[in-house]
Amino acid sequence: MGDQAKLSAAGGDYEFPVLKGSVGPDVVDIRKMYGQTGMFTFDPGFTSTASCESALTYIDGDEGVLLHRGYPIGQLAENSSFMEVSYLLLNGELPSQDELTKFEFTISRHTMLHEQLLQFYRGFRRDAHPMAVMCGVVGALSAFYHDSTDISDPQHRKISSHRLIAKMPTIAAAAYKYAIGQPFLYPDNSLSYTGNFLRMTFGVPAEPFELHPAVEKAMDRIFILHADHEQNASTSTVRLAGSSGANPFACIAAGIACLWGPAHGGANEAALNMLKEIGTPDKIPHYIERAKDKNDPFRLMGFGHRVYKNYDPRATVMQSTVREVFDALKVDDPLFETALRLEEIALNDPYFVEKKLFPNVDFYSGIILSAIGFPTTMFTVLFALARTVGWVAQWNEMISDPGQKIGRPRQLYTGPTQREYIPVDKR
Ligand code: ACO
What we know:
Elements: E1 4-9, E2 12-19, E3 27-28, H1 33-37, E4 57-60, E5 65-68, E6 71-72, H2 73-79, H3 82-91, H4 97-108, H5 115-120, H6 130-140, H7 154-180, H8 193-202, H9 213-225, H10 233-242, H11 248-259, H12 267-278, H13 284-292, H14 313-329, H15 334-347, H16 350-354, H17 362-372, H18 379-400
Antiparallel strand pairs: 1-2, 2-3, 4-5, 5-6
Helix pairs in contact: 2-9, 3-18, 6-7, 6-11, 7-8, 7-18, 8-9, 9-14, 9-18, 10-11, 10-18, 11-18, 12-17, 14-17
The protein binds acetyl coenzyme *A.
């Protein structure tokens, strides 16, 4: 028998099995706890609760380690491509050249949107946030693909996954085009996944589009950095929505809705807005003081993380990519200097040191995305585009798990106990 965790409570002594992963902290298996003890555990925000088994992504937040199927994020960002990482997350192993070519071809065959889906955009106000458009349009995909909605069929799941990954760039680019009043561009499957997205976003029908290889590479790397991040809020949302057997497109729309919030995917937009508000390095001390003031709601956006209590390894790659993009585009942005200085000051301040608050992936990404030409409202959309691969891989993993159950947390009830209804004229 393996290790057991002992619990003495409610007048009894109980033992629960301790499960071991391939790496990382052990986990106390409390599935039988309610049946044996009549008690639940209380863990708002799931800070101590593993909600599933997963073989996709491993994070060691204390050491600043992020592995996809065992491969460190730094190595993937340096040497791989978003398509290859997508294959890895979906299938568990890196593809051979032949497998990669076939996968890229398959994805490219699903890049177009149903013409009727394009009509949906016209129902949105021009000034709608593109994440609002993403939630609506991705959810609407569930009304279109009736040929692949049997989620118990692995082939159906595969086709839905490919469709989602393939169509996200087209949907995201159209959301941008609609906001700025330019015509939608159809995909060009002779381009790479990322090149195609950049063309659909920044190209216009009136002239040929020039794809900048350095920008294509940087964008692809940003997609890799956002591909998956184990059981974060939006991924858990996708899993919870999917646990009822819901349509995969609707589940991804739920993930997009969750990602939108400023504490999650919206943080890159918030981080750049904050840097703009700070402006020059001389204003930094004022904002540092505000971030430390408990009576002030201001937080350093792009700083701190639920899991990383060390430098987010994605932020390291992001910081070096800023310079690459600046050099390639021959641009500069004084906000980068402000960001570097802010990081330096914060990392030497006891408040941030003691609370282990380091820059996260969002701290530098806004500067790069802005240099490439994206408005801040598109930042979270790009995150959603890339995270779609993680969402579908996690959703597939969950549905294929024979022990999968509908997600149904418990609660600590603090409301009134049973009482008699009183008619309105007697109250
Ligand atoms: N600035 C100032 N203080 C902070 C910050 C920050 N960015 N982040 C955390 N703290 C403080 C909190 O006030 C709290 O202090 P206390 O213990 O005195 O009450 C302590 O550090 C712990 O913070 P929590 O909010 O309890 O930590 P949690 O794990 O719940 O939150 C979160 C993590 C939401 C990411 C938080 O650090 C934050 O709001 N950061 C800014 C937003 C951001 O960058 N989000 C992106 C996350 S990465 C992603 O989604 C891709």
